[in-house]
Amino acid sequence: MLPGVGETVRYTYRLRPGATAEAALLAEWGRCRWLWNEAVHQQRSGCRPTFCKLSKLLTEARARSSWLGDGSQVAQQQTLRTYALALQHSFKVKGRGRPRVKRRKDSLPSLEYTTRGFSIRDRRLRLPGGVSIPVVWSRELPSDPTSVRIYQDTLGHWYASFVVRREFTPAPEAEGAIGVDWGVTTTATTTDGAYDLPYHGRRKRCAAELARAHRRMARRRRTKGAPPSNGYLRAKRQAAKVAKKAARQNTHDARVWAKKVVDNHTTIAVEDFKPTFLAKSRMARRAADAAIGAAKRELVDRGLRAGRKVVLVPPGYTTMTCSQCGTRAKHRLGLGVRVFRCDTCGYTACRDRNAARTILATAERGRAGADDVRHAITSFRDGGRVRSEPKIPRLPAAGKR
C-alpha cells in the first residue's frame, strides 16, 4: 500500500448496556437468528436463496408479522446479506460447509448495522428503537464509521466493532527475507533463530483451574429441561473466563511476534499450513494451545497492511526437501526425527529450520503462491555442455508434511 493512502480497519470498544438496552439487543438478535434459520431451511429444501430473493421475502414477512416488523430492517437485511455471502463462498471453496442453523443455547449474539441504522451522539451509540448504549472510548475514532458490528462474548460482555478508514502509516525501512515453518514443539520456526515464536503453553498452565470449573459445572448441572441454577451459571462463567484469558494471551504473543517479523523483513515466506487435521490426532490439545492459525492470520494480515511481500507456500514435501541442494528424501521423516540429514550433499540441520529455509527458497524462486507451487527444470548451455538446476519435485497444493 502506498504512503498517504488510507486503509480500512476495525476499531473495537467495550459497551456498557443497561438492562433495557441489553433486552432490546437480545430481542433483535432473536429476530435475526430466526431469519437466518429460515434461510437455512430454504436452502436445505432444494432452493438456493440469493440476497435479492431473501430481501423480497423479508419485506413480505415484515408486513405480515408485527413481531418481525418491530425490529430494525437494517440489522435484518445485513443478516441475510451475510448468509448469502456465506452460502456463495461455500459453493466456491472446496470443503467449505453450508451455513448451519444457529441454536439459541450455543450461538452468541451478533448484529450488524450500516450508517442508516446507527449514529454516535454525546459519545453514546444510538440504535433503532430508541436504544442508547454508553461506549468505553479507549481511543478516538480516526474517521466517521461506515458500519458497526455489535456482539457478545462468552463472558456476557458486549463490544462494538466500527469499520473506519485511517491514514496509512508506512512500515520502517527493512531489508532481507524470512521463511516461517509452523510446528507444535515450537509454534513458528524461522530461518533466523532470533525470530522464532516459542510454545508458551498458555492453556496448559490454566488446565487445572479449567478442569475444576468444569467439575463444578457437572456437579451443579440440573436435569434436562430444568432452568440452570445460579451456581451452575457462576461455574460456567468462571470456565469461560479462564479460557478467554489464555486466548487473549495467545493473541497478544502473536501480535508482538508478527510486528517484530514484519518490521525487519521485506519478504515473508509463510507455510500455508492448515492445522484442522491436527484436531483429529493425539496432538489436538497441544496444537490448539499453540494457536497456529491465529499466529498465521496475524502475520499475514499485518504483513499485507505494511506493504510487505507475503508469499504463501504449500507445505507439501518442505520437510523432506534439502534446503541446500534441493534433493528430496526418499523416505518420509517421522515426527520423532528432529534432525534432517541429506544423503546427497551431507547437509545437516534442525528439521524445522531446514523446512523454513526450503520455504524461503521456494518463495524467492518466484514460483510460489496461495494456490499452487510449480518448479520447472531449466536448462542452459555452458561451454557446449547442457547443465540443469537441481531437480526439485513439484509441490502439490495440499501435501503431507
TrEMBL record:
Lineage here is: Bacteria, Bacillati, Actinomycetota, Actinomycetes, Micromonosporales
Keywords associated with the record: DNA recombination, DNA-binding, Transposition
**Family stated for the protein in its record:** In the C-terminal section; belongs to the transposase 35 family.
| Keyword DNA-binding listed | yes
Report whether Membrane shows up as a keyword of the record. no
Cas12f1-like TNB domain ranges (all copies): 305-359
Taken from the record, one Pfam family name reads: OrfB_IS605
Q: Protein name, please?
A: Transposase
NCBIfam families attached to this UniProt entry? guided_TnpB (NF040570)
Q: Where is the Probable transposase IS891/IS1136/IS1341 domain?
A: 169-273
